[in-house]
Design brief:
The complex is a heterodimer of chains A (about 500) and B (about 525). Chain A has 21 helices and two strands. Chain A is mostly helical and about 500 residues long. Chain A has a domain of about 210 residues. In chain A, strands 1-2 form a two-stranded antiparallel sheet. Chain A is globular. Chain B has about 525 residues and is mostly helical. Helix content of chain B is about 70%, strand content about 5%. Chain B is built from 22 helices and two strands. Chain B has a two-stranded antiparallel ribbon with strand order 1-2. In chain B, strand 1 and strand 2 form a beta hairpin. Chain B is globular, with a radius of gyration of 22 Å. Chain B starts with a helix and ends with a helix. Classes of the chains: A mainly alpha (about 500), B mainly alpha (about 525). Chains A and B meet through helix 15, helix 18, helix 19 and helix 21 of A and strand 1, helix 5, helix 6 and helix 7 of B.
Chain lengths: ~500, ~525
């Protein structure tokens, strides 16, 4: 027993680091009563250490604590995404006036940010239904608190409340789905589950099969809530708009990445015959799962894009745009071959850069102008050329035009879809959606470049060199990865390996 | 390795862009100077390129016929399970099809940068976008790798959006976004076909999937069980339609043309010049470079519909042009009409028309560019483009009117000017293929003469209204931007043989490629 624990722990240095960081950050606020923002540096140090220690998990293809948590290249890939966006979001938070103005609880803020990150790390590797549930809950509970962090702001409170209610419902559904699966298969870890299903114990057409389908749909509800797929997206716009922008950025990237990681692992391991060349959804043959996912994907991107057209608040618009992007990425899951999964992973790298960049600009602009309205971006290009230029690059990239990172992400997703026979229609809907999305992204750069602000808003906005450097940290890779994406593609393709018992 | 002249011509504007970004905002003189210098150097190098160009090599689907080839590894991903190896190359080269387009582009860009002097607002941004557009245009004509081609193709959209949207007329926002959305809609379909072609094509040298356009043209490289495998299958026809829509929006072909009049009317003069002079050619160039040689079977299948679309373009464009009261809008619609000749020529698929089609592309570029500059000159002075506001300009602005006469008559197709030769070839060949639609299309010439002469009468003849007493004739700078075009129009009108030398081998070969592969397939 001791040996198992020891050998397991030795593979979990990053997670252990985050756990210790959580405790240290939580207690640091008592020591740092005079300068509560400094708790952020404690968390930052922990994150950086966890980032470095992730190297120790590189190359391992194992599972720890029995088969609770997989430590495989796939998990490590997503952990890197999560920790990198975590570090960047910590950087945002240290610059954020929203957080600074409520600094008396900054210690809690940073502590919960750490626990959320820890939860997402666990999500990336969870291979037991209970572990999946617990890790999702850890992330959710932390994010409820964080989105309500601005206690004096009504919409932040509203965000937190809505998030809790929707979150409670969907985790309830998921838990029910898990219990059904346990009843059917007697297994909680997804490997045993697959073994039971592979024996053909659950025949299509039987009641058991219907129960299984219902259970999977309930579980999809839980995952869909995390990645804000339609119809589980209702919380997204309100939470994204109300939460502190740092948290919005984190939710839109890291939490979505963790959601995708857990969803992919669940389907790939438990239900897909990973051996057959086209990755057919064989184990669940009685239902046309790829079509169900495809429909969710189409609904998600179309609804996200169409509703984004009508938004006046940039943060809210980016919320809907992030729903649309989840839809694009779901196209990769329809394919579900290594091709499709790698495409999702490449997309996530690109999405991380461009989306965090866009949120960063929204944050710094809001701190100077006090507004997140798209209308208040009028003439920004003439008031703050660097920041506006960076924003334009992010928006072009989000639209998916070359030569930017977003194009590369879309390219491989579409390539994956087209490599699967019979799904050309999905690709066509995908590209039409990206044309639609141009219209609302273009609204922002139209305001920035084509229009002039009112006279009192025509004064130049002076940004410090730190802010400009901050936006360049995102803008430069957005272009570079658009033209030279070989290493990313290679990294993703080498990381599609899932641990299989 | 030889001097990479194609990359130099392509990326020189980016260098100029960086220099301009470093210049202070108020230094208009130097900003303009850099832009003109860059475009001039680019043009000179294009002439050098042309001087070293061997017109006896056909190119098109033969890699050995490509000249000034540059081939570098760009993205290489080693073999991984499931995916195989991925290789994308930086692959540039020119043949008789792209050489005239490169020359045309560099010429038009010089002219347009001279015509940009009337721009006053935010000059730095203007020329930055202008030069970025320049790079993208040359890049499209030089790339032989579909991926590279697509990147340049899309790179044109954003600068054009800003150029129309920031420096355009009163309805610029509407025109800019309309242009953007229309052309993006077209290009995403091209993207899908590109991916499909990638999965269907295997490079015989490496055994890997490839974006190499030349490899895509050889049916032997397309696996029969792949998505675009086989001959005249539904998938191939659909792909052809998707490509056609993508390119047709750029040309523009009826019914995808509605963005063009808006874009032209709102765009500043120099941008109209580029739009008409170069961007419209992208569509027909794409059809010739990609659709025809890669999908010859579908081309034959859709030959008649395309000829009919060409006919509609000619006649519809001419009729609508006749109804315009706005000078610039009339030219815009005449442009649609004239691109119809190219469409007919390209679809008729015989050597004469194919030569006529590319010659018409070149001539349309120079002539329409002249027309737009002329409209711009008048608008800069009068701030109106309504033809009924004018009259009797001839006496007031004789030099201006002289150039107008050349441009108008070239557009009508008067013998002795370049437009005549190319239109004649287009029709001559088209008669062989489909005498019915070809003869109907000649109606376009009559209508063309109609609206052009009528416009000329309304603006230049008659009595001069009093308000235009103070109108000044054109300046030296404006002459400088018109004269090179006029010279080209006259020389190629008198001695078209020079031009045919550049491209006839390639164009004949293109027809050969299409018809022979169709014959092999038993479609002809």
């Amino acid at each position: 027993m001791n040996e198992i624990i020891q050998s397991s722990l030795s593979l979990l240095w990053p997670e252990l680091t985050l756990t210790v960081t959580f405790i240290l950050t939580l207690f640091s606020q008592f020591a740092l009563r005079k300068a509560p923002m400094h708790s952020g540096y404690v968390a930052l140090a922990g994150f950086l250490l966890a980032f470095l220690l992730l190297g120790t998990q590189g190359g391992s293809d194992a599972s720890v604590f029995g088969v609770m948590l997989a430590v495989d290249p796939f998990a490590v890939f997503f952990k890197y995404l999560i920790i990198i966006s975590g570090i960047l979001v910590l950087g945002f938070s240290l610059q954020s006036e929203e957080i600074r103005n409520n600094a008396e609880h900054a210690g809690e803020y940073f502590a919960f940010l750490t626990s959320m990150t820890l939860g997402m790390f666990l999500m990336a590797g969870a291979s037991n239904l209970l572990m999946m549930y617990l890790s999702i809950e850890l992330v959710s509970l932390s994010s409820y608190v964080l989105s309500g962090y601005l206690r004096n702001v009504e919409r932040s409170n509203e965000a937190a409340l809505k998030y809790v209610i929707f979150g409670a419902v969907s985790s309830g559904l998921m838990l029910y789905g898990i219990s059904l699966i346990y009843g059917l298969t007697g297994a909680l870890d997804i490997y045993s589950m697959r073994d039971v299903l592979a024996t053909g114990a659950v025949m299509p057409g039987s009641w058991a099969f219907a129960t299984l389908v219902a259970a999977v749909i309930l579980i999809i509800g839980g995952f869909g809530y995390k990645i804000s797929a339609v119809p589980f997206h209702y919380w997204t716009p309100d939470v994204y708009e109300g939460a502190p922008i740092t948290i919005t950025a984190y939710l839109s990237v890291a939490s979505k990445a963790a959601g995708f990681a857990i969803m992919i692992r669940f389907f790939k391991v438990a239900f897909l015959n990973t051996v057959s060349a086209d990755g057919a959804w064989e184990v669940l043959a009685g239902m046309n799962w790829e079509l169900i996912i495809a429909v969710i994907s189409v609904l998600t991107m179309t609804l996200g894009n169409l509703v984004a057209l009508w938004q006046d608040n940039l943060k809210r618009m980016l919320a809907y745009s992030s729903i649309a992007h989840a839809g694009y990425m779901l196209m990769g899951l329809v394919v579900a071959t290594d091709n499709g999964i790698a495409a999702i992973m490449v997309y996530f790298v690109m999405y991380l850069i461009m989306n965090l960049g866009a949120f960063y600009v929204v944050m710094v602009v809001a701190q100077k102008t006090g507004s997140e309205d798209i209308d208040d971006y009028r003439g920004l290009a003439y008031r703050a050329p660097w920041v506006a230029g960076a924003m334009a690059i992010f928006l072009v990239s989000l639209t998916g035009l070359p030569p930017t990172a977003g194009f590369i992400g879309k390219l491989w997703i579409f390539a994956a879809v087209l490599s699967k026979p019979g799904f050309v229609w999905l690709a066509i809907i995908g590209v039409i959606n990206s044309v639609i999305s141009l219209y609302y992204y273009a609204r922002v750069f139209r305001n920035m470049y084509l229009r002039q602000g009112d006279e009192e808003k025509a004064q130049p906005i002076l940004f410090g060199s730190r802010t400009i450097a901050g936006s360049l940290i995102f803008a430069v890779p957005t272009i570079v990865f658009g033209l030279y994406f070989g290493p990313i593609l290679e990294w993703a393709k080498n990381s599609v390996t899932l641990f299989l018992r | 390795m030889d001097f990479p002249i194609l990359s130099f011509i392509t990326f020189l504007p980016v260098l100029g862009l960086l220099v301009i970004l470093l210049l202070p905002k108020e230094n208009h003189r130097n900003i303009r100077g850099v832009a003109v210098a860059v475009t001039l150097v680019q043009f000179i190098f294009a002439i050098i390129l042309w001087a070293g160009f061997d017109p006896s090599l056909a190119g098109i689907n033969a890699e050995s016929g490509m000249q000034f080839v540059e081939r570098l590894k760009w993205i290489t991903i080693p073999e991984t399970p499931w995916f195989g190896e991925i290789r994308i190359e930086y692959f540039m080269g020119v043949d008789g099809l792209s050489m005239p387009m490169v020359l045309l582009t560099t010429l038009i860009v010089v002219v347009a940068s001279l015509a940009s002097f009337s721009v006053k607002k935010n000059l730095k941004g203007y020329f930055a976008m202008f030069l970025l557009l320049d790079t993208a245009m040359i890049g499209v004509f030089c790339s032989l790798d579909f991926f590279l081609f697509y990147i340049f193709w899309e790179l044109m959209l954003l600068p054009m959006y800003f150029l129309i949207g920031i420096w355009g007329g009163p309805r610029r926002e509407y025109a800019a976004i309309k242009f953007f959305i229309y052309t993006l809609l077209g290009s995403v379909f091209i993207l899908l076909v590109m991916i499909g072609l990638y999965f269907s094509t295997t490079d015989p040298n490496t055994g890997l999937h490839t974006f190499n356009m030349i490899a895509m043209m050889d049916p032997a490289n397309v696996a029969s069980d792949s998505i675009f495998g086989g001959i005249a299958t539904t998938a191939r026809h659909l792909a052809f339609i998707a490509l056609f829509i993508g390119f047709a929006i750029k040309v523009p072909i009826f019914p995808f043309h509605t963005w063009l009049p808006d874009a032209h009317v709102e765009a500043p003069t120099a941008i109209s010049v580029i739009l008409a002079g170069v961007l419209l050619k992208m569509g027909t160039y794409g059809l010739m470079r990609i659709s025809l040689p890669m999908f010859p079977d579908s081309m034959l299948y859709f030959q008649l519909p395309i000829i009919i679309l060409g006919f509609i373009n000619i006649v519809y464009g001419a009729l609508v042009a006749m109804a315009q009261t706005d000078f610039k809008k009339m030219i815009a619609y005449s442009s649609i009409s004239h691109m119809g000749y190219v469409m007919i020529g390209l679809a008729a698929l015989n050597p004469q028309v194919m030569n006529g089609a590319i010659f018409q592309m070149f001539n349309h570029g120079t002539i329409t560019a002249m027309l737009f500059i002329l409209v711009g000159v008048l608008y800069d002075r009068a701030h109106t483009r309504k033809m009924s506001d004018f009259g009797g300009i001839y006496n007031k602005m004789p030099v201006y009117s002289f150039f107008t006469v050349i441009a108008f008559f070239a557009a009508i197709g008067l013998p002795g000017l370049s437009g005549f030769v190319s239109e004649a070839f287009c029709f001559l060949g088209a008669f062989h293929t489909n005498i019915f639609w070809a003869s109907l299309s000649t109606l376009g010439i009559v209508l063309g003469a109609g609206y052009m002469l009528w416009a000329f009468q309304r603006v230049f003849m008659g009595t001069l209204p009093e308000r235009w007493e103070g109108l000044k004739d054109i300046s030296v700078r404006e002459i400088l931007s018109l004269a090179p075009l006029a010279v080209v129009v006259v020389i190629l009108g008198v001695q078209p043989g020079i031009a045919f030398n550049w491209f006839s081998n390639s164009m004949n070969h293109l027809v050969e490629v299409v018809t022979s592969s169709a014959r092999v397939a038993g479609l002809m």
